[in-house]
Design a protein that fits this description.
Chain lengths: 117, 142
Amino acid sequence: MRRDVFQAIADPTRREILNMVAHQPLNLNSVAENFPISRPAISKHIKILNECGLLVIKQQGRERFCEAKFDKLNEVSEWIEQYRAFWTVKLDALGKFLEKDITKGSRKKSKKKKRRS
Amino acid sequence: MKTEPFVIERTYNAPVSKVWKAITSKDDMKQWYFDLSGFKPEVGFEFQFTAGSKEKSFLHLCRIREVIKDKKLSYSWKYDGVEGSSLVTFELFDEDGKTRVKLTHEGLETFPAIPDFARTNFDKGWTQIIGTSLKEFVEKES
């Protein structure tokens, strides 16, 4: 199974878990009691978050605490940045196309391909 | 933590009808966007196009979800053989004869972050196609 930040945040329960531990480290029980799903299910989500590098589990005495690691999330914004670059280029191209179309005025297109799928 | 949709806006010095045509006409789109397999502004219509680099290209699969003439066009956007699905929405606003375009791309977090996928698609692939080929084409034409 894939283990990266995108896999981590693809699931709403995991996003919620990250939300909870974002402000303060919480032990596994405190996390689990906020969800209607079973404790093993929560443990599995936490394990995935841990494997994806978004969360660390620290043993403190008898308890295990979950702590968020947010530097990994920067990968997400880099990913979004790629789409930003893509759409910026596309919308610039649209602008140029519209300008060109306006300067051409009402001149009709000389050739028109007939290709229907 | 929320995964907010990606939003980008532009205002064009062109009437709404012209912008609408540019985003819904196959011939127009071929000049600035992609060479689509076909296009009809109808809910449920499916179209596809290939984009990427020489080494690797991705077949993009789209299906129209919403059409409000001169106002809103929305379609799903996914990659053949790659998990995840996103939604692209164009919204047009008439502002004193000019047109503001609001583009929203939701669900990007559902795509895998395979480095190869990201790099191919954006750095080498599309940017090159659009930044070089289209630029040359547009400048040659005008």
